[in-house]
Write a structure and sequence with these properties.
Blueprint: E1 16-19, E2 34-35, E3 40-49, E4 54-65, E5 68-78, E6 82-85, E7 90-92, E8 97-105, E9 112-120, E10 125-131, E11 142-144, E12 148-149, E13 162-164, E14 168-178, E15 188-195, E16 198-207, E17 212-222, E18 227-235, E19 243-252, E20 257-259, E21 261-262, E22 274-276, E23 303-312, E24 317-328, E25 331-341, E26 345-354, E27 360-367, E28 375-382, E29 397-404
Length: 405
Amino acid sequence: MFIGPFTPDTTQTTYKYAPLPHSISYADSSNESFIVAVDGKLSHLRFRASAAPGADKSWTFTIYKNDIATNLAVTIADDATTGEDTIHPISVSAGDRILILSTPSNTPAIAYVSGCMRFTGSGNQSIFGVSSPNPLNNGATEYSNVHGQNTSWDATESLRRQVIGASGTISDLHVRLFQADPGTSPDAYRFTLRKGGASQTLTVTITADDTTGSDTEHSFHVDAGDILTIMCEPLEGPANTPRASFGWCFTADNDNEFPTIAGGDSNMDEAKTKYAQISVCENSMFRWWNTETLACNGNLDAMTVKALYMTLSAAPGAGNKYDFTLRKNSQDTEIAFAISDSDTEGSDTGTVIVEAGDYLALETDPDSLPTEVAALYGFLCETVPEEVPGGSGGPAALLIATGQI
């Protein structure tokens, strides 16, 4: 399955477009998009809202492919708080641009939404990526998180790290520049995926006058708990500073497994119990360490959560700790552990069965006023092969969607 987040953020009266892993929306579809890394199908779109839209009111969420509306759409209306579309799969190809359009009707109530969508590719493939609303730096090397929303590229790599929750192979990097190409040849930007602070062979260079590039030849292996970033290097002093979106493919070592990826530079609260989504982008607004109602992934597809891997940006300090617990439908699960004293890493395994419609959140509970630190984490999940209408059966990857409407 494909775990986002993507964010259908809108006003109560205006339709808005958003890339899938994003918390910023736009009035048209010409801005950055989610870039599909490999061929496959999107299906089983689900949403859950924190409040009903109200009598004779609604929100409709429609998937757009390359600026064209598809039949994959969900409407939440009247007193309902959930909706799903499990009968309109759409085919996607490597390099396709995917957006979601949020359309309100009759001024629905303000609410927060979360949900998910399946990606079914070949074998055990999942797709991930970033859409950035901010420009590249044409004078210095900078780094980004590898999944979700990138609120800004940063010169400090440690602020953009994320943890992957499963073991497998990363491949098929696709990059697209928006609003401008690098400038005049030989102006260029080079994008390189990195593991544990080391550059890998998976890299894309885009030279003026091009705006797209891909590397489908190289790949590298990761283990559950590894830390990922992507590096952007300006070459030959490019004249322009476009924005960039990129997508990449993950193929799990084990059948039916898929990872979540989370992490950012937002610190946990040192004194209060807070919650975050199981898959969250860097600096993801209200979805990062908030109340459980606002920070859960809801109306999920059926799956099993098998493990959690975590790295902290610094140790809690002597005599201090953070307790972490996966919660399902506001109840503790068996996946739980503490990171204390001088430690910065922790993990736990278990079997948490998620039924269609359930919701999940990660709880952090500080003890003895630990040092405020950021958490990078990833879950190992498993999906059950199921026939996708209009396509073949097989493993699917779940995208988890989040946003404010």
